[in-house]
């Protein structure tokens, strides 16, 4: 086992009556890592987070925290704090008392509490807000207070359950950067739950993609985006063209009855596979010279690029390009070998 692992989930299984919510989940989290549990509603990501925090008990399995199984340790005794989507701030207390709540329970000195609250408010860019009422704060400010209240207790791990879900788009993007900066500066392990792919790609060191109570893929944002393990990951993370193909030998793949060079190897000869090509990786070429040919069915301006649907003999390709080809025009398409991603078919 790696020395810097802080939490290790081993065969974590959770069942409600006849419903399997988690099916033997196995993964680990490193110290000072920003790890995101990503997936659609009902995939098991929040249940996983709640089990780590101690708010749910697994049906079976172990949660190893720094070498010790903490399954039977209650939430308040774990060196873990949680920030929920609903911030759960105390409306009858001002900002100072909300943040100081946990410190007062620990019976720290008044001077120590004041110093800690002042420092954490500075970190979340809310210096001078000590005496403000919670109800006078904006959604983004309340979210920062909730984070400050969790961080002031100096947990080893912070759990965040879709904490940006209630914010508008602009504020969400600002807070994504702020959260990442806070995590880096404090060196605390963050475990983050979201269904937002862009949020996961922007903030994470590691992403755990989940579906139907199972892990589909674990990797860096670049790995998850560029090398999806299966069709679910390819569709869920960004936009994809997924077409059936055959890999004839190492580095040679066929789709649309055309042979292409690729960079994949290790498949059986003549194995039926799925090919993933991202829309931005398709290049519009001269119709006569290209291997792939098609007719432009629709064009939509998306701001930074045009989105075109191009119909070939056997497939409808989605293409993102700064070059616009008009509707009904005939175009060629090309793709570099490294942008052709070969995946095993899910049986």
TrEMBL record:
InterPro entries assigned: AAA+_ATPase (IPR003593), ABC_SmlMolc_Importer (IPR050093), ABC_transporter-like_ATP-bd (IPR003439), ABC_transporter-like_CS (IPR017871), Mo/tungstate-bd_C_term_dom (IPR008995), P-loop_NTPase (IPR027417), PotA-like (IPR005893), PotA_ATP-bd (IPR017879)
Enzyme Commission code(s) on record: 7.6.2.11
Keywords: ATP-binding, Cell membrane, Membrane, Nucleotide-binding, Translocase, Transport
Domain of life: Bacteria
Example of a GO MF term: ABC-type putrescine transporter activity
GO CC entries: ATP-binding cassette (ABC) transporter complex
A Pfam family annotated for this UniProt entry: ABC_tran
Domain ABC transporter stretches: 7-237
Annotated catalysed reactions: ATP + H2O + polyamine-[polyamine-binding protein]Side 1 = ADP + phosphate + polyamineSide 2 + [polyamine-binding protein]Side 1
Enzyme's top EC category: translocase
NCBIfam families, per the entry: MMSYN1_0197 (NF043075), potA (TIGR01187)
Main function: Part of the ABC transporter complex PotABCD involved in spermidine/putrescine import. Responsible for energy coupling to the transport system.
Family in the record: Belongs to the ABC transporter superfamily. Spermidine/putrescine importer (TC 3.A.1.11.1) family.
Subunit and partners: The complex is composed of two ATP-binding proteins (PotA), two transmembrane proteins (PotB and PotC) and a solute-binding protein (PotD).
Protein name: Spermidine/putrescine import ATP-binding protein PotA
């Amino acid at each position: 086992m790696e020395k810097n692992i802080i939490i290790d989930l081993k065969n974590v299984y959770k069942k409600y009556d006849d419903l399997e919510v988690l099916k033997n989940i196995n993964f680990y989290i490193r110290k000072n890592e920003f790890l995101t549990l990503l997936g659609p509603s009902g995939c098991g990501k929040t249940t996983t987070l709640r089990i780590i925090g101690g708010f749910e008990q697994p049906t079976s399995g172990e949660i190893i925290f720094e070498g010790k199984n903490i399954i039977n340790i209650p939430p308040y005794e774990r060196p873990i704090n949680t920030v929920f989507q609903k911030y759960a701030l105390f409306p009858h207390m001002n900002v100072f008392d909300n943040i100081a709540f946990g410190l007062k329970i620990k019976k720290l000195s008044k001077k120590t509490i004041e110093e800690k609250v002042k420092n954490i408010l500075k970190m979340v860019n809310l210096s001078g807000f000590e005496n403000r009422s919670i109800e006078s704060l904006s959604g983004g400010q309340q979210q920062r207070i909730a984070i400050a209240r969790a961080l002031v207790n100096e947990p080893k791990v912070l759990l965040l359950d879709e904490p940006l879900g209630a914010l508008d788009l602009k504020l969400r993007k600002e807070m994504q950067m702020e959260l990442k900066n806070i995590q880096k500066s404090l060196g605390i392990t963050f475990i983050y739950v979201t269904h937002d792919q862009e949020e996961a790609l922007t903030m994470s060191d590691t992403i755990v993609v989940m579906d139907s109570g199972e892990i589909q893929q674990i990797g860096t944002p670049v790995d998850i985006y560029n090398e999806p393990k299966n069709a679910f990951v390819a569709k869920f993370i960004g936009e994809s063209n997924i077409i059936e193909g055959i890999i004839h030998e190492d580095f040679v793949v066929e789709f649309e009855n055309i042979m292409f060079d690729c960079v994949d190897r290790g498949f059986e000869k003549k194995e039926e596979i799925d090919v993933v090509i991202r829309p931005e990786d398709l290049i519009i070429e001269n119709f006569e010279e290209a291997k792939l040919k098609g007719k432009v069915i629709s064009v939509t301006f998306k701001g930074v690029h045009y989105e075109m649907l191009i119909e070939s003999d056997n497939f409808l390709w989605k293409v993102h390009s700064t070059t616009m080809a008009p509707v009904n025009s005939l175009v060629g398409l090309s793709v570099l070998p490294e942008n052709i991603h070969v995946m095993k078919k899910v049986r």
